[in-house]
């Protein structure tokens, strides 16, 4: 039987997109405490099913899929720009396709305004009205309001009018940053993207016996299974090693590995791969906050996903990409590589010297690339010891020299030295796991 928490999540999933959700109403409808209702609604928000907006409340929104994760709902825009809704609340669940800054004459502006877009503009009431009539929402900058007839029109068309105290440039930057972050996030493959769901997973119950394990192995061809109770909560994992030489009448509960290592659906595949390599496990159960089995991933699933990631084009640069892109790569005699670049203002701290975080990133990236020359795979840093010998000032030209000390099928060790004008200014030793593609 589903827990009260699970019942609330299912109830929220059944609500129409755009519905208002209140803690008090959910508690009353499902006969649960307001505390239980509040926690379930917060989890639904984490899962992307609802969005909470100040002075509006919580609204059911469409859960993002990978293909359109870079699109924002108007409810999310309100939160991004610290705005408040002055009309068209019923349309907050809708998704915007693009935004337009209204810094031109009215006739020219309307050529760019189309259904599903967002017009960013000041207190130009006629533009507000025409935008709504063209199927676009309106974001009013400078903290201005609009006319009552425009508000009425937005309610009728269910197109939001949002007001924010920020200027147009700041608002556009905030929205652009949010979309850019989504593009990066879109390329990060999560456990939930590759798991075999519980309804397609083979598992054993606590009441099963070793005999049942043997029968299941004959049917599916492998011997690793989660062990669950009647509510699908995970209690253990059973493998061939656990049942070897055990009488078939013995209960699975007696031989299984208890308190197994598990993962959550919103964990990155890279993180799960690191865990599986480190712990030496072939099967990883995926659970929710209440230890209920959502599915499983195998080492083979993870390897396929890592291969897929390598083949995908990157839509957005991470901070690590932006930092290392400032450095040119050169090949030296003997096959070693060298990175040469300059300490830019963005890399420094308030003292005008390179920040420890940036320096560590440079070391990680240079070391990983040196290891990749000798071993195909992804390098997951495990331990880094950094010695900051001399401060590096802004606009300093530096050389980064990684030297591979040792590499095996699963582990690598690299020494990284950083020079300025021929003087050693920093040194590091890094060990990594090698996740084969």
TrEMBL record:
The family database entries (InterPro entries) matched by this protein are listed as: CBS_dom, CBS_dom_sf, Diverse_CBS-Domain, DRTGG, HotDog_dom_sf, Ser_kin/Pase_Hpr-like_N_sf, Thioestr_dom, WH-like_DNA-bd_sf
Keyword Repeat annotated: no
Q: Which Pfam families does the entry mention?
A: 4HBT, CBS, DRTGG
Transmembrane region(s): none
Q: Where is the CBS domain?
A: 256-318
Write the record's keywords in alphabetical order, separated by commas: CBS domain
In Swiss-Prot or TrEMBL terms, this protein is called CBS domain-containing protein
